[in-house]
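Supplementary Methods. Inverse-folding protocol.

Structures were first reduced to a discrete structure-token string of length 187. This string, shown here, constituted the complete conditioning input.
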């Protein structure tokens, strides 16, 4: 048992103390995969990956801060075009960030950012922070499928125009039907 513990401690030290970028990179890949599942609307896969991350010992506040960092990188790539950062970003991370940034809109990233900040506030209120993380993932998956504000306005305009046309047609038919009666009553 002591040799197993010693091996795990040495492995942890090797990963986190000697090569923190490698450890951070592994976590980022998990976060990027999680966000990719979320953006694809894959609730089950997203929750399975989140539970794996929780089982690995991720702390809720760190999880949310890391998620914000990844959202920032995606936003930066999408809107600025490069990933200038003081933080190390591996080539494989950059590839995934590129793929995600091409699939997601800036308004979606902004709403994700706001929801994550809200959950950071919630952590001090709820008795089980892990439940808040799971519910965040569920909310983000379903939020991704919602239409944007602009799409809703456009839909309303089209529906209102369509309804207005139907109203005009109905009015014309009513007038047409009433015209002979109105002419007869004059006579």
């Amino acid at each position: 048992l002591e040799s197993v513990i010693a091996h795990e401690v040495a492995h942890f030290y090797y990963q986190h103390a000697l090569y923190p970028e490698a450890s951070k990179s592994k976590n980022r890949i998990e976060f990027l995969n999680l966000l990719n599942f979320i953006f694809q609307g894959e609730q089950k896969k997203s929750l399975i990956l989140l539970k794996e991350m929780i089982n690995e010992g991720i702390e809720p506040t760190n999880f949310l801060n890391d998620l914000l960092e990844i959202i920032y990188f995606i936003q930066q790539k999408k809107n600025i075009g490069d990933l200038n950062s003081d933080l190390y970003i591996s080539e494989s991370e950059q590839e995934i960030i590129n793929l995600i940034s091409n699939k997601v809109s800036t308004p979606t990233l902004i709403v994700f950012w706001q929801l994550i900040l809200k959950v950071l506030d919630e952590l001090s209120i709820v008795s089980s922070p892990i439940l808040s993380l799971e519910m965040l993932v569920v909310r983000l998956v379903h939020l991704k499928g919602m239409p944007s504000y602009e799409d809703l306005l456009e839909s309303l305009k089209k529906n209102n125009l369509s309804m207005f046309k139907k109203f005009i047609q109905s009015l014309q038919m009513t007038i047409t039907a009433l015209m002979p009666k109105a002419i007869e009553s004059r006579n």
